[in-house]
Structures are given as C-alpha cells and as structure tokens.
Amino acid sequence: MDSEIVLSADRIVARYGSIEALHGVSLTVKKGQIVALLGANGAGKSTTLRTLSGLLTASSGTVRFLGEDITRVPAHRLPHSGLVHVPEGRRIFGGMTVKENLDLGSFTLANDVERRRRMDHVFEIFPILARRQNGDASNLSGGEQQMLAIGRALMASPKVLLLDEPSMGLAPQLIKEVMNIVQRLNREGVTILLVEQNSKVALKFADYGYVLEAGRIVLEGPGSVLANDDAVIGAYLGNAA
Description:
single chain, 4-stranded antiparallel sheet
C-alpha cells in the first residue's frame, strides 16, 4: 500500500459558539486506506468530519489534503479537489428525482460526457437507483436513500470520501450491503474515512482506527488489533459495538 498521507488533522480545535467540541484532534489517512473513526454518541466524530470538510472551521490546528493546507478553504471548493463528505442523515433532496439528485453531485463538472459516464458507473453499483432514476427521491426507502447519498458523492469522483454513519437506521442485511459497497469503492481506488456507529462492523475491514472520547483521540491502532480488544470496546465504544 502506498504510504502517502492524503488527509491529515494536526491538533485541530473546533467550537460551536463558546463550547469547545474538539480538543486538539490529530489523525492521518493514507492513500488507499479505510480508516474508521469510532466512539460513543457525542464523542465528536461528526464534528471531526465537518471540520475536515470545511463545514466547520477549526479554531486552531491544521487540516491538510494532498499536501495543501485546507483549514480555511470553503467547504464548497473542496469537492473540486476530490474531498467529498457524505453527512449523517443522508440529506437527499425530496421533490427532485433520483437522477436530479445525482446531477447535483456533479456540480464540479462541465463535461456532459464525463457526467454521463459517472452516472452510468453509479447505476452499475446501485441498480435500484437506475430503475428508480425518474422517481421522487423522497419515496426511496432508508437504505435506498443511503445509496443515493453515496452515489451523489461518487458523481464528484472523490479521491477521499468522508462517510458519516452510513449504516444508521438500516436493517442488518442492508448494513452488510452498504459495507460491501464501501469495500468495493475502496478497491476501486477511493480512500475512505468512515464514522460508524457499529464499531465491530467497521473494524472488520478498516486498515486503521481512531477512538474518540469527549473530543479527544484516546486510542488508535490497526483495525484488526482494535477489533480483537474487548477491553477497548467495553471501555470506549459502549453500545456502539
């Protein structure tokens, strides 16, 4: 595996108003990896992704992507460089078709031929979206909406994909399906930073993992090591396991 660091946070501090949510978080994501960011509810996982993707500006510290300091780069500019965020809760646009939702994901693209190629690739990964492309996106099931949210992100041809709780609210069989898709995308060359409530599922295929507690990284290590440490899961991940 290439050891090149594609995304990093160096002692980032993030606040919501006067409340400090992240207290000096540092992490690295290397090219080709799946990295899991784990922790109990309220630990700061989503805040970390929001800070990395520019939705929340770090109060201090540095975020780097492909060697460039992006700490203060506006969120809407980062997909142009290949950093794409799929937020918690899917955020699909009801009142618009599945195809229109996907088209929104390609706002960085001026080439219609390439847009069509990318959409065909999304439809190949998610055949259900192809069948329902002209229907209102709000009529999709929860699992289908998650597929649409990931598909929309793929329309930007991400180099690094930030995935926030992709299995939330899904039945076990759908969780397995979504995780298989995450693995497939990684095999196709997409580096992934994954926030996942089901830590055992995430660590099963993560190359590396970080555990957050109250806005601080308290533990890190290879996914296989963390996955087999019951003390770690019991102490830090609670019901998330």
